[in-house]
Amino acid sequence: MPLYKAPLRDMQFVLHELLQTEKNYQSLPDYQETISRELIDQYLEAAADFCENELSPINHSGDQEGCHFNQGAVTTPVGFKEAYQKYTDLGFTSLTASPEYGGQGLPTLLRIVISEMLCSSNWAWAMYPGLAHGAMRTIEHHGTEQQKQKFLPHLVSGVWTGTMCLTESHAGSDLGIIRTKAEPNPDGSYAITGEKIFISAGEHDLAENIIHIVLARLPNAPSGTKGISLFIVPKFNVDDAGNLQDRNNVACTSIEHKMGIHGNATCVMNFDGAKGYLIGPENRGLNCMFTFMNSARIGTAMQGLAASEMAFQGALNYAKDRLAMRSLSGAKCPEKNADPIIVHPAVRSMLMTQKAFSEGGRALAYLLAEQVDIGEKSTDSTQQAYSEELLAFLTPIAKAFLTESGNESAKHGVQVFGGHGFIVEHGMEQIVRDARISTLYEGTTEIQSLDLLARKVLKSEGKLLNNMIGLIEQFIQDHRNNADLKPYLDRLSELKQQWLSLTNHIAKRAKQNPEEIGAASVDYLYFSSYTVFAYLWARMAQVALEKLAAGTQEDKFYKAKLSTAKFFYQKLLHRTEAHAAAIETGAESVMELEEDAFAF
Amino acid sequence: MPLYKAPLRDMQFVLHELLQTEKNYQSLPDYQETISRELIDQYLEAAADFCENELSPINHSGDQEGCHFNQGAVTTPVGFKEAYQKYTDLGFTSLTASPEYGGQGLPTLLRIVISEMLCSSNWAWAMYPGLAHGAMRTIEHHGTEQQKQKFLPHLVSGVWTGTMCLTESHAGSDLGIIRTKAEPNPDGSYAITGEKIFISAGEHDLAENIIHIVLARLPNAPSGTKGISLFIVPKFNVDDAGNLQDRNNVACTSIEHKMGIHGNATCVMNFDGAKGYLIGPENRGLNCMFTFMNSARIGTAMQGLAASEMAFQGALNYAKDRLAMRSLSGAKCPEKNADPIIVHPAVRSMLMTQKAFSEGGRALAYLLAEQVDIGEKSTDSTQQAYSEELLAFLTPIAKAFLTESGNESAKHGVQVFGGHGFIVEHGMEQIVRDARISTLYEGTTEIQSLDLLARKVLKSEGKLLNNMIGLIEQFIQDHRNNADLKPYLDRLSELKQQWLSLTNHIAKRAKQNPEEIGAASVDYLYFSSYTVFAYLWARMAQVALEKLAAGTQEDKFYKAKLSTAKFFYQKLLHRTEAHAAAIETGAESVMELEEDAFAF
User: Fold this and answer.
1) How confident is residue B291, by pLDDT bands cut at 50, 70 and 90?
2) Where would I find the Acyl-CoA dehydrogenase/oxidase C-terminal domain in this sequence (chains A, B) (predicted)?
3) CATH number, domain at B254?
4) B583 and B465 inside one domain
5) Tens digit of each residue's pLDDT (9 = 90 or more) over B318-343
6) Residue A128, domain extent
7) Is the dihedral of CA A445, A450, A455, A456 positive or negative?
């Protein structure tokens, strides 16, 4: 069973060397006084300690035990409650919330970096505070002052948790057709009635109260997505001072049996005239949700990254330890009866792939989190708008690609273990099972692909894509005289051109046939993702070259960065060619088969 | 939970129209009298009835219940024993065995086609007779006449089953380092001592006796693979007339907790001076195993195909049924509140991918099974040698690619279901969990890749590859005037050239550095596999065009073949480009990172 070791050195590389966080955050007035390299490192070390020593040891046992359901109550696996208590004691629930409600007012970036460690060490557990954060953030952004006073302090302290109640059994990707209704009560509250499914952390024994954020329809609301409103529905009613009152009419009626994330309760929630409070404007519930969506999607991206990282750690340890066959170029450990399998190129390729996905994913995720902070806190409106656009553009890429590459890494993790990977006790198959949800929830890979191509790229008439292209061009320009970077810059230059021409190609075809967008979207997402990774790996290579040129005691670390960049460019980046070629063939072969001719 | 429906029409297409089985088998004296289209269809229908009505209904329940272990005894899930009884009553265990020992003397092809249905409808169950077949075949090929008389009749009738005991906890891919020992007894038998793990069907309640085929070392045997011998070790000792006697000293000490195939007992087997009988020559056990290996690997390939087929069937039904969002080109079912998701290109792409893998895999598997029969039964030694070579070449491709594509299809199956795919009751996640073993056992994908590139292609100095290239060239030549086929032939022609030049490229590099072989092998396997599929899809397209030109009442069926061929060429075949480009970059980026620099 792989035990988690926080990759602090690599996290620091991305934060301090690649993104230069300290410098960048100095320009944001809210963080000018607080954010320093030292503070970040202190938080990282505290989180690493908690994740390695509290969460990692209950990860596998939590999977095996799962959650227990008994007459509406959910008991989490052994150790989950105690770990949650420690987590709140350490103040991790209050990181980003406003000091007005008891928060520490720290940047999202810090929360995201810590969430990487939480997800890696115990994905199922990490979802409890993860969902609570979603609820907290929604109230902070859209609640009235009274709602904030009433609900936020206990959410911020972690005494309460929260959920996001969106999905119904017939409505997942398509929220426009939800049926849960909200009828006005005389006191200004609403009676919420309906059944929600797939409610992560909907019921559990970690916290005193659970604050549900619920999508529902007001009477006579327009049909479709424009008739959905958002409500706060507490498990226990709460007075204005935040004291618990009677039980509200919301109950968990069962929990799902799932492929993975067994330690997290996925609940069917029944709202039976439950008292709820409208949050945000009537019929604008989905819009309110969308402000939260980017951050929720980065959260899921972190889970994908976590799968890559854990699968890499497990596989690497095993590959150094397990003996089988001799190296093709002669025995490497002649004193043993076989060589460790890390000498074999096919095993190395899998490890390098995991490493490239994990470290590249880390760079992308932290870059995104930085855009969240700049978008929210910058006083320069141009910079703010730019960051918001970059965030909007990169979010579907990060969500879809980090989760898909996380699944690929998890597969390699099992594969490196051979038959032992299939055995429960080694813990590698759990990573596959846990990771599988990540390409499904918070918008499937297919939904992300449409979001990227249709909403972000085509609807903005290329503006959001051009921002990204601009970043790449700037990087090429800045380092055009760097001979060591030339192979990277040359390839980036080609990719950038191809990206633009593929986009134009799709836009042109889509004018004739809108199905062209859907048919191209998934390949387009992968093409875009590999290109974004290529940009980030080139940037990381550039930093490593700079450090090596300047002289460093960490030669091995920087050389490993260069080797991984090279591996990414030589072995993984060519996948763009398959995706580009597939895009160019258009929609015909996808659409022509009649529905009744798929099987006979 | 998807219920299995045997794709009889497609099976018949491959058997009767693509491979022209009846005609081909007329040239094999053993089958001249027996094999007809009618006979094949009768067997297919009987097997379909059994699989759809007996095995499919206990597939999901078997996964959920799993096997029970109690003091050395294993109880299989509810219904497994009764289904096995029916299976033997129907005579399926005796299909291919020689009539001398009670068999029906039918071709391997028929067994393989039926095994597709068994694996698709209930993978875990199908492994019990699958392993028995392995043991049976080994004894038939390598046993003495006395051993055959003693062990075969009850194996053939299915009253007994069998296993293959190879793996030890420290030795999986590398059988050269096994430790189980065989010491001569005064009576000519051997005392077998050691522990074997991952023994599928090692203990269970389906049969009266279990005949283990065990790899062990004789005293003073040479070290490595050249010092391994093969033994028959029955669970109950047997007299010469085949009557059960006392219990042998072999026992199941535990069963593994696994990711999937829960209905099949994966046993730790302890041999404590168990009585065994040498089979085949001393120290040639691995060679004896290898004659069985190709057929075992086709068996695993069938499991991969089964995963594709089941995932396709489940996803297709759901995609026609589930409503979400509107088609990008306008509502397709305006009377409903959303369109069925099969209208969406991204969903269609997943279904078409599964269909292309499943039907292409079927063609490859049946073609291979045909080579087994020709290799064994042809009286024309040139034809025989050619079939054996083709089999040797295509087996690692079929084993690795059908299982990897089966895993990909299973993933798409879950994805089409969205969040519901993650829920146990829908049965789609079981396909992912079951399928995961198939790229691990019977030689991992990486082992198959080395087998293909190093043993089959390079060691034969290209001869085995040239056979395949010859088939492609012949096909191109035969249909060069067929305008409708031109896009396929042009692409095949390019691929064939590229295949040769990649091979030369690797061979040249390997002379400098043998690691080049390992570094290229997995990409080479994928390149080869997609090219073989391209050949088969072109052949299927040609048959479909011919039928349509001749006039048929099955227009839809043949047009669907053409659409699927087109989809394969346009959307999946371009993956060769990524693999080719990765091969061309060589081993450096795979090998250069030092072992202690993978993580910091």
Assistant:
1) low
2) 283-453
3) 2.40.110.20
4) yes
5) 999 999 999 999 999 999 999 999 99
6) 8-142
7) positive
